[in-house]
Amino acid sequence: MATENAVGAEELSVNTKKMHVSDTDVAIEIVGMHKWYGEFHVLKDINLKVMRGERIVICGPSGSGKSTMIRCINRLEEHQKGKIIVDGKELTNDLKKIDEVRREVGMVFQHFNLFPHLTILENCTLAPIWVRKIPKKQAEETAMHFLKRVKIPEQAHKYPGQLSGGQQQRVAIARSLCMNPRIMLFDEPTSALDPEMIKEVLETMVGLAEEGMTMLCVTHEMGFARKVANRVIFMDQGQIVEENTPVEFFDHPRHERTKLFLSQILH
Amino acid sequence: MTQTDLSWVRTEMAQAMPAPAGERGLVAWVRKNLFASVGDTILTLLGLVLVALILPPIIDWAFVQAVWTGPDRTVCATIAQGGIQPDGWSGACWAFVNAKFGQFMFGRYPLEERWRPILVGILFVALLAPLLIPRVPHKGLNAVLFFLVLPIVAFILLVGGMFGLPHVETPLWGGLLVTLTLSFVGIVVSLPLGILLALGRRSRMPVVKTICIVFIETIRGIPLITVLFMASVMLPLFLPAGVTFDKFLRALIGVSLFAAAYMAEVVRGGLQAIPKGQYEGADSLGLSYWQKMYFIVLPQALKLVIPGIVNTFIGMFKDTSLVYIISMFDLLAIVRQNFSDASWASPQTPASGLIFAAVVFWLFCFGMSRYSMFMERRLDTGHKR
């Protein structure tokens, strides 16, 4: 796996000044959550508490359920047992609650999932205008602000297909930010990118972390995890196997499975 | 052993030159495309022979020998057949089409009221043309006028019986008027209905899903003729005594529902081609189901299936001819009906009438086909994922 560690920790500069984690304000709480795909038990007894401002990196072998877990947080996947409380709202079949949660939780996908028939600017303004009911002009100003932040304001009137993978992923991040979310989920945001483009996306994510965004990030970018995460969570076979601060996690893994995993990806 | 110097430096940059004469111009094109090999040459020559055999007789019949005007059948018949043309003459009888043109367009719509369908036709074109040309602004207003106001105005004008307009019963309607009305209503109803059916068929709600599947599969499993018969003959049996509604209206409903079932399957094909990621992207932003469908999924799905949609439109346009079996006279039926007019019966009349009808049908269908290709190219942002 050549790209696993494409960007070393030393290449990302992180300013930890504002990265404040709340002691009392819980952003996400998952209690005893299970999920099945038909007969197959994909997620087993997941317990996780994320404080506001916390940055969590989730790693693990493919098929370990890490993507499924974070997709449960904005109900792209349903869980069958246990509780998920996001921003004080419990996720149930209540569609209104689900929409409320989705408004507050931004998500960035491995394959960007930009809307190819809309321009970059339209991609960024659609949800603010129709979900948040923000006037078009104001939504466009916000969109341009975030496009500047991800350093591609000049692409605003192009279509996604005309941009490179890295640019598209930065647009996807900007699109989520335009909804002014309180929590951001990243589902392997750099896995589909060419090595050269990984860094530009990671830098954008570091910028977000520096501003105190609550982030859950499924990634294999161990450099990013080391520098930015408060906690690293290791999953295998649908359960959380180990959980620790990045320094401890990488330097003194305790579970055998973690040791094996790390020995295979850190070479 | 001699020491060879491997280095070399260009002292002067080569300039671009025009391609050799054999690669440019008409001669080169002909040689490359028509006579590139022995096989090509044979095919080209065969093609030319075929054209030479077929085209001149057609031109001769349709234009050179054709009769363009005349009072009755005598201009289109040979002396032996009781006409004025020399023996052995063969040519198109456009005089027949000319004389019957009004009927072909409007059927038996009363002569003094024909300004009404003509006005509707003018309004139709005046509203459709700007709608089809992307550069013209105010598409929203234009669409409202075309899809909502025009049908009401057209209904009042064509049917009459109000605002001092004499009532014209639908059995009097005919010709292109019937063909176009059926097709227009069919198209305007079947597309949105088909979209709803397609969405319903993919719905997670079992009741909605079942209703849509039953409707689609029932209608698709029945020939259009049967649907029309049922609409015309059987429907009144199910209605309470005394309740009747217009046969033309019943045909309209039959054709629209029939086209909607086909449209639903075309649209479903498009919906299935949209990657899951598009749905998830929309979901993750908090868009509601209808917002997700309207802004994200349908624009992409419909763009993908434009050829299929237009195919259904074209099929329906031509299928409207089948209303003749419930004794309504669309363009084709009225042309055929006029073959039996004794004052125009001649050996050339049927061919001329049928070719005229074919050309009219072809013009509309070809127009739809070209416009759909134009839209495909225009909507293609050329990028996948």
Automatic annotation (TrEMBL), chain B:
Residues 176-367 form the ABC transmembrane type-1 domain. Pfam families: BPD_transp_1. It is a multi-pass membrane protein. The chain crosses the membrane at residues 34-59, 115-133, 145-166, 172-199, 211-239, 293-314, 321-339, 351-369. It is found in: Cell inner membrane; Cell membrane. Keywords: Cell membrane, Membrane, Transmembrane, Transmembrane helix, Transport. CDD domains: TM_PBP2. Gene3D superfamilies: MetI-like (1.10.3720.10). Belongs to the binding-protein-dependent transport system permease family. HisMQ subfamily. PANTHER family: INNER MEMBRANE AMINO-ACID ABC TRANSPORTER PERMEASE PROTEIN YHDY, MEMBRANE COMPONENT OF AMINO ACID ABC TRANSPORTER. This is Amino acid ABC transporter permease. It comes from Mesorhizobium retamae.
